[in-house]
Amino acid sequence: MCGIIGYLGYREVYPILINGLKKLEYRGYDSSGISIFYKNGYSLFKTKGKVNDLEKKIDFLKKKNKLNGTVGIGHTRWATHGEPNDVNAHPHVSNSNNIVMIHNGIIENYHSIKIFLLKNGFTFNSKTDTEVLVNLIEYIKYENNLSLEEAVRISLNETIGAYSIAILEKSNPETIIIAKLGSPLIIGIGKEEFFIASDPIPFINYTKNVIYMKDGEMAILKKNKELDLRKIINNHKLHPIIKKLKINLEEIEKGEYKHFMLKEIYEQPKTILDTLRGRLLISNEIIYINGIKSNKEKFINATSIIIVACGTSWHAGLIGEYLLEKYTRIPVEVEYASEFIYRNPILSKKDIVIVISQSGETADTLSALKLAKKRGVFVFGICNVVGSSIARNVNAGVYIHAGPEIGVASTKAFTSQITILTLIALKIAKYKSTIDNFFYKKICKELSLIPEKISHIINNHNSIKNISNKLYYINNFIYLGRGINFPVALEGALKLKEISYIHAEGLPAAEMKHGPMALIDENIPVIVIALIKSNCYKKILNNIQEIKARKGKIIALINEEDVQVQMLADYVIKIPNTVEELSPLITAIPLQLLAYQIASLRGKNIDQPRNLAKSVTVE
């Protein structure tokens, strides 16, 4: 989850590190630090808090410390081992102060290594697994009179867990050694310079030539030398593959928006169009997805589909379950990746596993992918980040093309994932002839109109602002949906929890009678998705009546022509009509805006909510 940045070249390193950390802060922001190297020495700064706190501390201390080096590393932390404080912040140094390291991931056997090192005279200042690893490297280096790179390689072969590391030594300040297993790490290749980062965002204004490091690889970066890429396990030399980034700088800037989350909500008409572009060809009545087309027989003959994901991607998967089962008549199960990998799932060679991850680096989802492939199951990936670990490891897949999503609370990736799942379900159904041709054409046409309808909601959301002004002080909410909009209720509740710290619960509306109704009184708002074209509309009306009879406060998402729910609800949010199967793409938007407005009124840090990080790269 942490963010790593590093540079070796001819430029002043401090601006690269500090600005890079600001761009990586969505990955973790409990504490941060940098180390700048120069001849026979280094400066090290770290502190609890955000990168701005680090910048202030450096500004205060800079008269006593050098900032004018051209080699350095930096880190922004999401705490795993040890609470967020100055001591546990990265970089960490070895007992001799000669070796400095930053680390993203978890060393699972750190405790046994620590006991061994304590017996050999080592001491520890922090509670982190990272300090244990840097001292293991020091022990192996000096005990065996090895080079740093060889000591790193041997040490990593003795560790269990996940890591991306960058490491330097005081006596050799023009060499950075990096390694990866399970956590993302990318090398930017410039002219006589190298950049390293957890993702390419911090260096795209310097270079777009990148190497996506693979698990089990380490690289030795030296000034004015070619990159040396090797296998950790056997030191076998590898030939690096350089790829070209397609990200633009303006995609990762807030521009006129106060928060990235608001920007990303507003981008959804465009991002859904980008997801559809080249895939939904309305004039020819064709859906084209190469990963499905090239594996046509596998999807036609699949005995079942298992969708595996976490968080918001799991909610998208639930919507995918409705769509795939309705259109393709293939049984579908949706699994939490974190549970899937520990319960010995029953999988057959004719099953298909679909893994969904915005970042493509979600540790639990990546583990589920590897388990499925080990069992001989075909794995299809849905990712946003090009070149990510999941994208590289699946048998086939598709990118959602939502563009960089910086806000920790996912918005545009969610609707793009739903869009892709809709296209996949329609494509397989067409192959299997399990969908009526008239309905197929109708839903394709409706799908092409969704961006315009989302624009209408975004441009006319005063009712959401008014509702937020009246409810933002309340500390408990219930969200209700039925059918394909039940997962949207879950997602709406998650958004509110993530960014406003309000307790919110998403439920199938009919389940209120089986316990949760005991919570209802005049002080708890109930947000109900009540669409007139839903085949559950009359049932939802009954659910609303039951809540009103107990003095519950109803906020209803309704279609513009609805009369019945409007008469019952305390507040309404009107949305355009669409076919029921596509309604989650419409209903998700006002719930995102509602969560945003409430969090804003409560004065929360919307893009960096407490205790969270964008990409969960540790299990």
What's the helix and strand layout?
Layout lengths: L2 E6 L4 H12 L6 E8 L2 E8 L2 H11 L9 E7 L14 E2 L5 E9 L2 H10 L9 H16 L3 H10 L3 E9 L2 E10 L4 E5 L2 E5 L11 E4 L4 E6 L5 E4 L5 E2 L4 E2 L15 H7 L1 H9 L3 E2 L4 E2 L2 H4 L2 H5 L4 E5 L1 H18 L3 E5 H4 L11 E6 L5 H12 L3 E6 L5 H5 L2 E4 L12 H21 L4 H23 L2 H10 L4 E6 L4 H15 L2 E6 L16 E5 L7 H12 L4 E7 L4 H5 L2 E5 L7 H19 L18
Helix pairs in contact: 3-4, 4-5, 7-14, 7-15, 10-14, 10-17, 15-20, 16-20, 17-20
Please tag this protein with its features.
619 residues, alpha/beta, Glutamine Phosphoribosylpyrophosphate, subunit 1, domain 1, Rossmann fold, 3 domains, 8-stranded antiparallel sheet, 7-stranded antiparallel sheet
Overview of this structure, please?
By secondary structure, this protein is an alpha/beta fold. It is globular, with a radius of gyration of 26 Å. The longest helix is centred in the last third of the chain and has 23 residues, at 437-459. β12 and β13 form a beta hairpin. The strands form five sheets. The protein has an eight-stranded antiparallel beta sheet, covered by helices on one side. Strands 5-6-7-8-12-13-14 form a seven-stranded antiparallel beta sheet. The protein contains 20 helices and 27 strands. The chain has three domains: 3-250, Aminohydrolase, N-terminal nucleophile (Ntn) domain (Glutamine Phosphoribosylpyrophosphate, subunit 1, domain 1), CATH 3.60.20.10; 255-458, Rossmann fold; 460-604, Rossmann fold, CATH 3.40.50.10490. The mean pLDDT is 92. α3 packs across α4 and α15 (437-459) packs parallel to α20.
